[in-house]
Each structure stands twice: as structure tokens, then as C-alpha cells.
Amino acid sequence: MTRFPKNFLWGGATAANQIEGAYLEDGKGWSTADTAKYLGKEARSHLSLLKPMTKEDVEAAMADQEGIYPKRHGIDFYHRYKEDIALFAEMGFKTFRLSISWPRIFPNGDDKEPNEAGLAFYDKVFDECLKYGIEPLVTISHYEFPLALALKQNGWLSRDTIAAFVRYAEVLFKRYGEKVKYWLTFNEINIIGMTGYLSGGILADGIDNLLQAQYQAAHHQFIASALVVQKCHELIPDAKIGCMLARMEAYPETCNPADVLAAVEADESNLFYTDVQIRGAYPSYMTKFFKDRDITIDMVEGDEEILKQGTVDFLSFSYYMSSIATADKTGESTGGNLLGSKKNPYLKASDWGWQIDPVGLRITMKKMYERYQVPLFIVENGLGAEDTVEADGSIHDSYRIDYLRDHIEQIGLALEEGVEIMGYTPWGCIDLVSASTSEMSKRYGFIYVDQDDLGQGTLARSKKDSFDWYKQVIATNGEDLA
Predict the structure, then answer these.
(1) Where are the domains of the chain?
(2) Which of 35, 171, 296, 425 shows its CA 20 to 30 Å from the CA of 113?
(3) Where is the catalytic site (predicted)?
(4) 170 with 177: CB under 8 angstroms?
(5) Average pLDDT, whole number, for the chain?
(6) What Rg, from alpha-carbon coordinates, does the chain have?
């Protein structure tokens, strides 16, 4: 007997805007990700993901002929998908998490007809996966948004975006319903406040209260997600569709009740989003939160019923690190998964300052499963690091193996404790462009891609030591982690 169930979905995760490239090829329209400029390594502490954008900023990026925009070329998965999927199959992937680019299907977000060339591309990708017995796990919206809808109606700040998104999802379900049985609505929906432009298409022009805008946009996404869940159940009855959270596990700094309360409030801030998508209603604790911040959510009649009827089948999440919650706001801070916190003296950190906490993954799985009693799916977890290519071409990434081994061990322990876990897809199974800083040197993959931060290189793929290690992990269903 193994701790991992026979049908456990081992695989890896990516996003269209970070791997595909071909940003205006075959009819694809502009996305918000296409305007993400590489600002150099010195800008790592100023995450481009978080930068508010104005209409003037967007127009300048579209016209810029000198700047470097790495997400426009990604790692050329658009032309190399067969080679990459063959490598995933060699590792033994049971599933491959990828996203679909909305403007590749609807170039302007709300066109009268979908772009057939875009639809055909994903048909080929899914067929290639299924040829090897790899189940596609598809994120419908992952950190990109049709730029035309941002300019036209300020993205998710407009209720009109709901109908456009539902129509887009319906096209996907009808086209790929026989090929894709696992779906996610929005990637890391809870950080819309930090990715308002990138994932939400929200321009800062004329917005006085960004916090109000954040939660109003999130409400529109909640409604869209609920409607899409219902549509998926209607059109693909044998499919499963989940939500996706950037999990922020926060420990109280001390046993001071004020610190413990800060940790409870950190959980509420994080799990508000899954409370809505899994429980089907706004939690009571948000009433005071909104009142204290003068936030009013504009709901229309029927919204509450839509949320109630459109609850998801499972909870997927990313987990990279834990943080410290405290009432004391002084002290040294460290970055990680877009949020900073005080340093935890019991933990080591990655090259990017992300605190490495495998036990925290088990803590968060136990807490979330107890809270929701729905299956969990770890769809992002991994170590971003600068890899060195040796003279013979080998890449010895023992640090990545250590990180993943320790986290998988904790998943196994959580399974033994009765937590229901569907699968595990480490982030960036092949090196890709960083979501936050648009750099290439922050690598996560089992597969090295010969490309630097400036987009230079052969794009040749090569196996790191972690490739064969993960292959053995999958072959033994998580039992051989040596």
C-alpha cells in the first residue's frame, strides 16, 4: 500500500502568458500580459505584477519598439508544444496544468465569433496530451486579460465583463468537453488587488478608491465563476471544476492574543474568496471589514442565488511559503508569493527571500480540508532559483529536489491523516517567464530552457537532475523520494 491513491494526479503547471509566445500570431489579440516589461534584476523588489497601469501606460507599451517584453515570446511553447509534452510524458505526467489565453480565442474579449485558429491550437495541444494519457487541467483565466476589454470597459470593474467571460467559457466547454475533464475558473483569485491590471484589466485612471474597485471586481469574478461552474456541470456532466487560491498560511508571531488575532484575521482575508466559492455566500466577518473601510459591494437581484447555486467541486491552491502575522508592524521583512512578512527564525529562505516551509503545506491542507470538506488539489508549489549549466551541459539542482521532496513528504502525511488530495502539479515544470518580474533567470523547471532575461538563447530544452528524480517519484507513486 502507498500513501498516495492509485488515481493521484502527478504532473506540472504552467500558464499561457508565460510559455506560449506568438503574442499576435494566428489572430490572437493583445493581452494585459503582453505589456509587462522586463525592468532588470534590480527591479526584483518592485514587482511589475503589482504596478497600476493607466491608459497612457498601456498605449506607450504597445508602441514601444525598444523595451523587452518577455511574455510576448515566452518559451515558444506555441511552436514547441509537441517536444515539451513528450518530455512531460517521459517523466510520467498524469496531468498537465495549462491555461487558455482568452484573447487567443476572442481577440477583443467579446467578438461576435471566436478565433478558429486559436481554438485549433488548443485542440492540438490537448490531443498531444491525450496521446500520452495525460489529463489536461485547464485554467480558464490565468494572469492575462483581453486588452481591448480593459480599454473599453475597465475589465472586471464592469459588470458587462461577466457575460463576455461566461460566453468565452461556454465556447471552451463545447469545443473541448470530450478532451478536458478538469477545469479551474480564475488563477489565484484572491490577489486581484495586486494584479488588478494584469488579471483584471483594471486601469487606474479615474479610480479614487482602489480597495473598493478591488472588491467590486472580485464580486464580478465570483458571479462569473458561479455561472461558469453551472455551465460546466450542464455541458460536461462528467467534468470537475474548481476554484484556485494563492494560499497564505500565517503563523502568530507570539502567543500574545493580539498576534493570534492577527493570524485569524490573516486567514479571513485569505479564505474569504474560497468561502464564497465553496460555501456559496459572503461570510459574516466581511460585513465589518467592508464597513470599516467604507466599501460597498454593488450587487443586483439574483446575485446571492447565483453564488449559492454555483459552488465549485474542489479547491485548488498554490503554496510556496508561510508568513508571520503580528500586531507589531516593526521588524525586518521578507518577500514571498507577492506578500511580505517578518522573517521566521525557524525557516530557511530561497534566493528570492521566500521562506521554505514544507510543514506549513501540511498545516494548510489540514486546515482547509477541515473547513471545507471538499477535495484539495495542489496546483502550484516549487522553488525559484538560478540554475548553473555545467561545461558538459548538466544541471545539478539538488536544492530543487530537496524542496520538492520535503513538500511531497508532507502531502503523504496529510493523506495518511485523512485529507483528500486529488493531485500535485509543481509550478513551472519547464522553465518559463516569471509572472511577477518577467525574468527568465528565476527558474522552477525540471526542464531547462536556453533563454536569458533578455530573450536571447537557442530555446533548446535539456533535462536537469530533478527531471529523473521526479520521474522516479511518479513511477513509484510518491514512495521513492530518495
Answers:
(1) 9-248+315-321+352-475
(2) 35
(3) 380 (nucleophile)
(4) no
(5) 95
(6) 21
State the pLDDT confidence band at 251, using cuts at 50, 70 and 90. Answer: very high
CATH class belonging to 9-248+315-321+352-475: alpha beta
Instruction: Categorize the per-residue pLDDT at 330 as very low, low, confident or very high, splitting at 50, 70 and 90.
Output: confident
Cell numbers found for residue 367: 486546515
**Alpha-carbon dihedral angle through residues 124, 141, 39, 77, given to the nearest 10 degrees:** -10
Per-residue pLDDT at 45 exceeds 70: no
Say what the pLDDT of residue 51 is.
Answer: 75
SS (H, E, C) the chain: CCCCCCCCEEEEECCHHHHCCCCCHHHCCCEHHHHCCCCCHHHCCCCHHHCCCCHHHHHHHHHCCCCCCHHHCCCCHHHHHHHHHHHHHHHCCCEEEEECCHHHHCCCCCCCCCCHHHHHHHHHHHHHHHHCCCEEEEEEECCCCEHHHHHHHCHHHCCHHHHHHHHHHHHHHHHHCCCCCEEEEECCHHHCCCCCCCCCCCCCCCCCCHHHHHHHHHHHHHHHHHHHHHHHHHHCCCCEEEEEEECCEEEECCCCHHHHHHHHHHHHHHHHHHHHHHHCCCCCHHHHHHHHCCCCCCCCCCHHHHHHHCCCCEEEEECCCEEEECCCCCCCEECCCCCCEECCCCCEECCCCCEECHHHHHHHHHHHHHHHCCCEEEEECCCCECCCCCCCCCCCCHHHHHHHHHHHHHHHHHHHCCCCEEEECCECCECCCCCCCCCCCCECCCEEECCCCCCCCCCCEEECHHHHHHHHHHHCCCCCCC
Segment 359-369, tens digit of pLDDT: 999 999 999 99
Task: Give the residue among 367, 321, 358, 365 at the shortest CA–CA distance from 343.
Answer: 321
Average of pLDDT values for 297-315?
98
The one catalytic residue among 380, 416, 439, 479:
380
pLDDT in tens, 365-411: 999 999 999 999 999 999 999 999 999 999 999 999 999 999 999 99
With contact defined as beta carbons under 8 Å apart, do 173 and 236 qualify?
yes
- Check pLDDT > 60 for residue 220: yes
**Residue 195 CA: distances (Å) to CA of 183, 283, 304:** 21, 23, 25
Annotated catalytic, 380?
Answer: yes
Percentage of the chain modeled with pLDDT above 70: 96
